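Entry:
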Amino acid sequence: MAKILKFEPKMTEAKKFSLVKREAVYTGIALVGLIIFWLIAGFGLANSDVKIFHLPLWAVAGSIGVWLFAILASYILSRKLFKDIDLGGEENDK
């Protein structure tokens, strides 16, 4: 079921900037987490003898695992941490 998004009425420019800055920080934290996951999944599992479809575990975890981790991080960011606001760009374009 689709969720209807409601915009807050008239936010100040300072509050909008603060919200955008907060979302950028969360995105940066997600990027650092993704890089750490990639390092652990790729290099940390290099000595493992486990194979998945005749591929070493580090190859699967370092590629498909990172892709799935990025999808999960994007979902969490968009559903839980980001907020839909009107930035007022359309009024300035006219």
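Residues 35-82 form one domain.
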